[in-house]
Write a structure and sequence with these properties.
The complex is a heterodimer of chains A (about 110) and B (about 290). Chain A contains 2 helices and 6 strands. Chain A is an alpha+beta fold and about 110 residues long. In chain A, the strands form 2 sheets. Chain A has a 3-stranded mixed β-sheet with strand order 2-1-6, covered by helices on one side. A 3-stranded antiparallel β-sheet of chain A has the order 4-3-5, with no helix packed on it. The longest helix of chain A has 16 residues. In chain A, helix 1 packs across helix 2. Chain A has one domain: 2-Layer Sandwich (hypothetical protein PF0899 fold), CATH 3.30.2320. Chain B is of the alpha/beta class. Chain B is about 30% helix and about 20% strand. Chain B is built from 9 helices and 10 strands. In chain B, the strands form 2 sheets. Chain B has an 8-stranded mixed β-sheet, with helices on both faces. A two-stranded antiparallel sheet of chain B has the order 2-3. In chain B, a hairpin with an 8-residue loop joins strand 2 and strand 3. In chain B, helix 2 packs parallel to helix 5 and helix 3 runs parallel beside helix 4. The radius of gyration of chain B is 20 Å and the shape is globular. Classes of the chains: A alpha+beta (about 110), B alpha/beta (about 290). Chains A and B meet through helix 1 and strand 6 of A and strand 3, helix 2, helix 7 and helix 8 of B.
């Protein structure tokens, strides 16, 4: 349940940046290969924000698809699932995008 | 949560003293009065020490841009990695280790794969060749730390309470408590869990995943995030292969897919089969001691 620690990280980061603002919305980007379950973050969010200046804020999560580069055939591809395998059969791949886990923006009142 | 660094206040860090491990370590003592549990009776609190160190500062990305500050309901663009604070502390740990010439190994596995048994054997058998100290991560108890201590290594126990993984702040405190010598090895025995520890960089020099044949051959495909970042996979309990249904060929195929960059070594921490290759792997990576 590392999503609890992740969500605490989100709330901490926002609260320390904007300590005096009433935050009404937090926007997160959770990459398909980040290893974080968006639903679990949603579940934790209300608990973690309680008593902070983020209490009552909505949470908007975008989950951009991953993109990988195959070092064998040289093509870029979108992996099908959490194991990055090129359609050519190679596992020699570099993840270009999709491992990110970031706060993109927040809305304040 | 700790107001200084945001670390989980339920975390207890205990440096096992040189003398006989006292009975109180078998219990989990907490001072509940202030809700901050870093200082159990008789234990060495490394928390404040870590905060006072020069190298310990907190990550604050300065890329906050108010887009329309005059209006109400404005959007503030942040663009910050959620794990930025942990990653920053991990980099500080990495720098601290590099400066001192210390190899840190992040050892991760499911509960019961044999991490502590492997470390007991390793610390005993390598004692004449190198100094090995251990950071033990468990939710509760100092049972593993006592085993490692009995095997002859200096050890710090980190009890994470409800936490399911070690993070870079906990390891920073552990490292300062151990004060490992130059040219030595620190093994960080992470909390037994194939999911959460994968996300948290600790500042280690190498990531080792320990698996065992009794867990079944399907783990690399079931826990790809853990295996993807492994430098080395140790497949333990090979002495039990005659008694379990474990498809080695399938395992090796699946491991190649999940962890194409990882080296696989088959070992038995119980009877020592294949263990020399693990020792050699460690020894090749230990930096020369600084003068």
């Amino acid at each position: 349940m590392h999503e609890l620690a992740i969500t605490e990280g989100v709330v901490d980061a926002v609260a320390s940046r904007l300590p005096d603002a009433k935050v009404t919305c937090v926007r997160l980007e959770i990459g398909a290969l980040s290893g974080v379950v968006a639903d679990s973050v949603r579940f934790c969010f209300d608990l973690v924000t309680e008593g902070t200046n983020l209490e009552g804020a909505t949470l908007e999560i975008t989950q951009p698809p991953a993109r990988c580069h195959c070092r064998v055939c040289g093509k870029d591809f979108e992996p099908d699932g959490p194991i990055a395998l090129c359609p050519c059969g190679s596992a020699e791949v570099t993840v270009l995008v999709g491992q990110d886990l970031k706060i993109t923006s927040v809305q304040v009142a | 949560m700790c107001g200084t660094c945001g670390c989980d206040s339920a975390t207890v860090i205990t440096l096992l003293p040189d003398e006989q491990v006292p009975a109180w370590l078998s219990e989990h003592k907490r001072s509940a009065a202030n809700g901050h549990h870093h200082v159990p009776l008789g234990a060495v609190s490394l928390h404040e020490q870590a905060h006072s160190d020069e190298g310990h500062h907190h990550a604050h990305d300065d890329e906050v841009h108010a887009l329309a500050s005059a209006e109400s309901g404005r959007t503030v663009e942040i663009q910050q990695k959620v794990l930025a604070k942990n990653d920053d502390l991990a980099e500080q740990n990495r720098g601290w280790l590099r400066e001192r010439g210390i190899l840190a190994v992040n050892l991760m596995s499911s509960p019961g794969s044999g991490k502590t048994t492997l470390l007991e054997r390793t610390t005993k058998e390598l004692a004449h060749r190198m100094t090995i100290s251990v950071i033990e991560g468990d939710q509760e108890t100092a049972l593993d730390a006592r085993r490692i201590k009995a095997a002859g290594s200096k050890v710090v126990q980190i009890n994470t309470g409800v936490g399911c993984h070690l993070d870079a702040a906990m390891v920073a405190q552990g490292l300062r408590g151990l004060d490992p010598p130059s040219g030595s090895v620190v093994v960080i025995e992470n909390v037994g869990n194939l999911v959460c520890p994968a996300l948290f960089d600790l500042g280690e020099g190498a990531r080792v995943v320990l698996a065992s044949v009794t867990e079944g051959a399907d783990k690399p495909l079931k826990y790809p995030h853990m295996f993807r970042q492994a430098d080395l996979v140790l497949l333990n309990k090979t002495d039990l292969l005659p008694y379990v249904d474990f498809d080695m060929k399938q395992y090796m195929t699946d491991l190649r897919r999940a962890a194409p960059n990882a080296l696989l070594l088959q070992i038995s921490a119980t009877n020592g089969d294949g263990i020399q290759a693990w020792y050699d792997w460690v020894q090749r990576r230990v930096p020369p001691p600084h003068d």
